[in-house]
Amino acid sequence: MNNIKKYPVTYTLLALCILTYIGTTLLFGMDMNAMQGLACGGFNPYYVQVTHQYYRLITANFIHFGLMHIVVNCYSMYNLSCFVEYLMGSKKYLIVILVSMLSTTGLPYIAYLLLGIGAHTVSGGVSGVIFGIIGAIGALYLFYPTQLRDIARNLGMNVLLMLFISFIVPTISLSGHVSGMIGGFVSAYIILYITKRKRQKFFYSS
To answer: 89 partner at 20 to 30 Å CA-CA among 8, 33, 71, 190?
Structure first.
């Protein structure tokens, strides 16, 4: 219970993913195909454009296509998310999570509108948010390089491996992962920059 109060954003996100998976399992079984994923709120840019169901830009982050999919994602997110929520604070961290969600699906949607890319893909899962958290750690490192040097070094190799896997495995959305990382990095950097400026302004005014 103390951990839930300490990391409310992390535990809420985990709960939403798990509850969504339980619901889709009751409907379709432990594994879903692309059409079933689409029926449960998965992301497809052409479908979003035609039906204007923009809620899919968010709901796609919570659906998972199999037991291994959700176990790996929830485990990875828990290990990273508590750490970043602790450093940034829950309110600021929530902004990073929401931006990461929207960029995970939003940037591929923009790419589809401009270039016609990904018209036949259906995607889902919280892995784009995980990459957003990694992006946030990158932003934190820029502001606190001494404190986070060892963590950034260890994380760097893991990120390269995850991106490589995203590139070679056709069922994994590389664009979603990269987009999520961009959203997480940019939002965290802006938040940290504004926070730093406010602290400096308070210091000099006092």
So the answer is: 71
